[in-house]
Amino acid sequence: MKAVVYKGKEKVAVEEVPNPKLEAPDDAVVRITTAAICGSDLHMYEERSSAEPGIVFGHENLGIVEEVGPAVRSIQKGDRVVLPFNVACGFCFNCQRGYTNACLTANPQGTTAGYGYAGMGPYRGGQAEYLRVPFADFNCLKLPGNEEDELEDDFVLLADIFPTAWHAAELAHVQAGDTVAVFGAGPVGLLSAYSSLLRGASEVYVVDRAPERLRKAESVGAVPIDFTKGDPSEQIEEHRRRNTRQMSALRPSEHKMPGVMCGIDAVGYQAHSDENPDREDATQIVRQLAKVVNPTGHVGLIGVYFADDPGADNEAAKKGRYIFPLGEFWDKGITIGMGQAPVKKYNTYLRDMIINGKAKPSFIVSHRLPLSKAPEAYSHFVWRGVGAGRDFTKVVLKPAMDKAA
Q1: Range of the domain at 116
Q2: Cβ(217)–Cβ(165) under 8 Å?
Q3: Nearest-angstrom CA–CA distance, 103 and 84
Q4: Which of 51, 131, 192, 198 has the highest local Cβ count within 10 Å?
């Protein structure tokens, strides 16, 4: 079959690899109809992880079940399914408690497993024509409809970024009426803002420098903040001060809370400096959150912070060690949540929101391309919304498009 294979720094190729096969009685093999490229894939693509050449990329996968093992009971050939990026057994101590992002069974080398990702077990990715799915009864989420219908691009986002974005809002404790600042207008940042609005937030600000991405944020009701035009925390506070109705509703002492109650870091360790956007500053977003989140507020760090970053500019950062403004967080009593999303915790409910017209996450999809165009897509997507990638927000790959051409 054809698959997207990592070849080294900023290089992937679509190559022939062996077809997957059933390896255990509870496996399934899925024919991929749509696979998305994730911002997390870029960490590997840019040689900012422990990924070795030869890995098949792709952890956002949707398709049709082609074959099931003899122990599979609830999924059958012909079912349309989307697959959480977390590979999980469903029966270990962590899975039973809902922490499928920390399955103790699926990855022999660690406490988290996933498709096509460095350090997350022996599972090939789904930017390919077919994919082996372990623990199929547990990991396959059944979907209605037919491949390439009007919900295809919404459903594929249930594999990762829609549940991840919802989890970001959970980590930040976003509730009805809350004020929220989301740093990063990539796919997860945009859907974190969208999730916050779905949860009833009264104000949502999205910080980035990519014009097209900021326009998408504005299109769903968020306030775009361009960090190249000044300190984003100060811009947010100034925008709030201009809301005269809101300000007139405050008692005098409540003006001590000029920021927001919830903050989300949807960027991670490859954040760019406000002062020099062409230079990385790994803790830029964390410092901004410490500044803009009000006392007693909440922060969700959904952006990736690897413990192993060979591309970092100093030895401490290469080991995931950063200077953290702990004093500011402690002084304000801000709570912090972080880590991968347990996709299974949310995907059924988010699926039903899509089915019933309450959510349309595919507004972020900018490009629908055949699998063969993956190298070109990566070369643009890596620009993260500026330069040669200015109109690349979210790319989905369609293997069948190559056969139709």
Answers
A1: 2-160+342-404
A2: no
A3: 13
A4: 192
